[in-house]
User: Fold this.
Amino acid sequence: MRIFLDFDDTLYNTTRLKKETNRVIADFGVTKEFQEVLKKDEEKGTGMNFDRVLKDVFDSLGKDKKAKFDFKKLKQKINRILNKKKSMLYSDSLPFLKAIYKKHDLILITYGDYRAQRFKIKQVGIRRFFKAVLIVTEKKEEFFRDYLKKREGVFIDDKASTVDFVAKNFLDIKTIVLRRPGSWHSKKPFGKYDFLTRNLSQTLKIINNLEKTCK
Assistant:
């Protein structure tokens, strides 16, 4: 069985990453500038790349603030967070991948800045579990219009609107919304889906049941 799997806030604790980086940003007194850069990126549909974002934050500072600002130290602290490797994976991610990767074709599909996403995937050491890793720099929905045509399998994502799009447009694909408590999209409204889970242990049970019905 083919399984299409999201990365951020599904396998990788992006919510924790955001909270830790926000604390560092606040310590340096540039929360307002940081949020403004992120908002512009979101409007443009630009994926998150910390090197570029931090540079844009620095460039946006006034002359006096820029003169006193320790940009190098800020980058060091952010990089320390990014280099935490496997601690940024949810505790159930590795057990889940180990349980299914030999029996199913796993395809990782993640949206964002190509270099930033590739770095995170490499850092947590999960590439070996996947038949393919697809880093999508356009909106996922646009990518799926062609990629998921005439395909069957299971689609797992934490973002309800993405799952809704897949569920409505690709009827041969079973959809699972992974709604981790406290995660970035945990309070967003639901759309259409086949299954709802709170963690990957519950998700594994659904996959095992689907596997039985396919035999």
